[in-house]
Amino acid sequence: MAHLTTNTISEAVKSAGRDKATNPRLQQCVNRLVDALHGLIQELKPTEAEMIKTVEFFTELGRKDQIQILADVLGLSALVDLLNYPKVGRATPTDVEGPYYREDAPFRKSPVKLYEGDEDHPLFIKGRITNHEGVPLPGAVLDVWQTNGRGLYEHQDPTQPQYNFRRRFATDAQGNYEFQTVQPGPYQLPHGGALGIFLAQLGRHLWRSAHIHVKISKDGYAPLTTQLFFRGDPYLDSDAVFSVKEELILNPIRIEDPARLRERGLDRPYSEAEFNFGLWPKELGQPAYRLAASPADLSKKQEGITVTRLYTGPDGESHFQDMDTPLTSKQTIGRLSEPIRATSIIFRETDGDYDYGWHHAPRRQYIINLEGEVEITVGDGTTRRFGTGDVILAEDQTGRGHISRAMNKRPRKSIFVTLD
Ligand code: BEZ
Ligand code: FE
């Protein structure tokens, strides 16, 4: 351990305990974290005072239970969500849960009202819950929570009763649901203290676009956690936690027709919005490009078609990521993925002496290998071989890129499918 230098310390940290490690996934993650953090320190050369300030920052956030919020404002939660749950078929896009869910919200039968007492402008949200192919799902349970019209969650506001704007309820025999609420106000993340000072110095505001959180559960279906937003909200394009998705934006309409007010037993205008949710059957696997869980997992046979993504990490280096492309049954013509828009197809042959040093992808493109093998090395030191039938999605358009070379001095045939 003696005589460590700036060049050897990272390897020393990564190899400490290596022989006795019991959790390969944790080890893989921590090694990459050490590489990334050591790389940052080498590049930014923080002073000791900056190091102490950084530790104090994390300590304060930890004490105030705000580490989750830090992950949210840095876009980490949104990125994990985007990687794990892209939209598939009619399945509703997921979204981050945020820190303010409470279990055991009161369960209500129809008609469902999310709050106690009276509020100025009621909003009715209704729709249907179906599976990914549009088949209605009776008995699906919605668990909904939101702020009141002034942007305050019940647990932050002594004027609201316990569990106000938090309710659970189920779809009827046709898979329909409806609840009465109010349009939530935009909400500001905690702005006193270290987190507020940190974001202010970055020129960032702390407003979340007004939203309603929804969790839906139904036996046999992947639980869905998502949020609903409102067209016209001033923070749709600058949500502090980067979680707004176009497909999740509601378009409420104002109802003033006296006959319709009477039908609802109301003496003042109200608004109405419709949103249909689609759930993904568990038996079809995760509706997502799955992050590789562990080397053991990687060796398991994957359902669907595996595409290996080459992407640039925050460290400016290229990395591999194996993604499972889900296929859905289309009876006679087999199982199909969702269509992927492409711009051209280029057939390609490379010679047996092909050896292309560090370079990045010229554009986003699939590379479908037809014949022969290629060996690709990326900046984190990993080298992998791809042969007949392997599919690569090259997206590392920035950073150092990767090295590609022919294997066994043999020519190779492949196809580029360009995406943009
Ligand atoms: C929220 O949904 O209210 C929330 C999400 C992320 C961080 C803080 C709050
Ligand atoms: Fe929220």
Per-chain topology:
Blueprint: H1 9-15, H2 24-44, H3 48-63, H4 67-73, H5 76-84, E1 112-113, E2 122-131, E3 141-146, E4 166-170, E5 176-182, E6 187-188, H6 193-201, E7 207-208, E8 211-217, E9 224-230, E10 249-250, E11 253-255, H7 258-263, E12 270-274, E13 277-279, H8 295-299, E14 305-312, E15 318-325, E16 328-329, E17 335-336, E18 344-350, E19 355-359, E20 365-371, E21 374-378, E22 383-386, E23 391-394, E24 402-406, E25 412-418
The structure holds benzoic acid (BEZ) and fe (iii) ion (FE).
Mind explaining what this structure looks like?
The structure is a single chain. By secondary structure, the chain is an alpha+beta fold. The chain folds into two domains: about 210 residues, Aromatic compound dioxygenase (Protocatechuate 3,4-Dioxygenase, subunit A), CATH 2.60.130.10; about 130 residues, Jelly Rolls (Sandwich). It has eight helices and 25 strands. Strands 1, 2, 5, 11, 12 and 13 form a six-stranded mixed β-sheet that branches. Strands 15-14-23-20-25-18 form a six-stranded mixed β-sheet, with no helix packed on it. The longest helix has 21 residues. About 5% of the residues have low confidence. It binds benzoic acid and fe (iii) ion.
